[in-house]
Amino acid sequence: MSRRGFLGVAAAALGGVMLAPGIRLIEVAQAATPSTGANPAVRWGLLIDVNQCAEGCNACVQACNAENGLDPTPTRTSAQWIRIVQVKETKTTRAAQLPVMCQHCAEPPCVDVCPTGASFKRADGIVLVDRHSCIGCRYCMMACPYKARSFVHEPLSDQKPDVPRGKGCVESCTLCVHRIDRGERVTACAEACAKAGHHAILFGDLNDPDSEIAKRVREIGGTALRADLKLRTAVRYQGI
Amino acid sequence: MRWLAAAFVALVAASAVAADDGGRTPKPVIAKAKPGTQCVEPPEAMRRLHMSFLKHQRDDTVHGGIRGAKHSLKGCVDCHASAETGSVAKAPGDFCSSCHQYAAVKIDCFECHASKPEKLAQKGGNSK
User: Domain range spanning residue B91?
Assistant: First the structure.
């Protein structure tokens, strides 16, 4: 037996020894230390550079579908968390495309209208649906000016353990909340966009003046879609 | 009348004894957890209170973003998924479904939550 193997066995044996009646070292080690939860000092957001968003590319949509267990070959009734929207300026005929997902408003209309409190905003600014209390009434879908939410019409199977979702509930982009809670600091869409070489999506903390996203919003600027609604969105766009 | 009452008591006592033996009363088969694992609570507490544990923690997780605490459904699935089906609720004999079927309590958790641990859930992906 190797030295490492021996130590492993010894540690396991020691772990099994009773410390006090009913409490063993192995249980103390397994006692979970829960994460601290959503930080109210933080405001997670995205900055999307429309000039970098390459025509015909939908890497972010595919990455989102794969990350969250959405339909990889979407039908007309499939849930959709990111839409690619084509825009064209009539006078100059400048055409562009941009991904539109939940804009994670500071004043979310979906939360205002939800009759059960299922639609809510987390302390760190992420707007989510608590599927335990969602009754599938779809008021939030009507209220959202960005058409960001989808209703799940069909029974689902083989969901991702990190992303529970099912028939009869409304859902939308979670800003990859499971990744954020794990301590990762990049969403699936931003990661895929960078991997595709476009670097059009930047994820970060808008409240931290030293973060890349806050610097770029400060220096180059970033517009909110439908800024006239004064919803103070966390997803900003450059170049539209 | 007194005689009838005595007979009834005797009958109840006899049936209780039979139930203890496990002879006449059918019992759910509780599948063993993954070897070498230790449950977060004693079995008696889990059998009676698992739904309260889960419900209490789910709000902290969904609304507060507090993850990795003791009573997580993912934790249950990781240890209790069956060796045959890889799931806790797919076949009638799987860990969750065997008791829930016995008690005639419908289990809705796995309409949305994955009933398989991380690795197995990612193999088959035909979700919409």
Answer: 30-119
ipTM of predicted assembly, 2 dp: 0.81
In a domain, A224, yes or no: yes
- Min distance B111 CA to chain A CA atoms (Å): 6
Residues of A in Cβ contact (< 8 Å) with B113:
159, 161, 164
Instruction: Tell me, yes or no, whether B113 lies in a domain.
Output: yes
pLDDT for the residue A34: 87
CA distance A234 to B18: 65
Assigned domain for A99 exists:
yes
| Domain around A66 | 44-238
A161–chain B Cβ distance below 8 A for any pair: yes
Residues with Cβ within 8 Å of residue A116, at least 6 apart in sequence:
A133, A134, A135
Q: Per-residue pLDDT tens for B63-106?
A: 999 998 999 999 999 999 999 999 999 999 999 999 999 999 99
Number of domain units in chain B: 1
**B100/A contact by beta carbon, under 8 A:** no
Q: What's the domain count of chain A?
A: 2
Distance CA A55, CA B68 (A): 41
Residues of A in contact with B76 (CB under 8 A): none
Residue A158 has its nearest CB partner, among B59, B62, B126, at B126
Alpha-carbon gap: B16 to the closest alpha carbon of chain A (Å): 30
A109 and A156 inside one domain:
yes
Helix (H, G, I), strand (E, B) or coil at B47: helix
Residue A130 to residue B63, Cβ atoms within 8 A:
yes
Pair A72, A25 in one domain: no
3-state secondary structure A177-233: HHHHHHCCCCCHHHHHHHHCCCCCEEEEECCCCCCHHHHHHHHCCCECCCHHHCCCC
Whether residue A116 lies inside any domain: the answer is: yes
Q: Residue A127: in which H helix or E strand, if any?
A: strand A127-129
Q: Which chain B residues have a beta carbon less than 8 Å from that of A72? A: 125
| Residue A194: inside a domain | yes
Q: Which of B44, B59, B127 to mutate to test the interface with A (most CBs of A within 10 A)?
A: B127
For the stretch A201-214, pLDDT in tens is 999 999 999 999 99
- CATH code for the domain of A185: 3.30.70.20
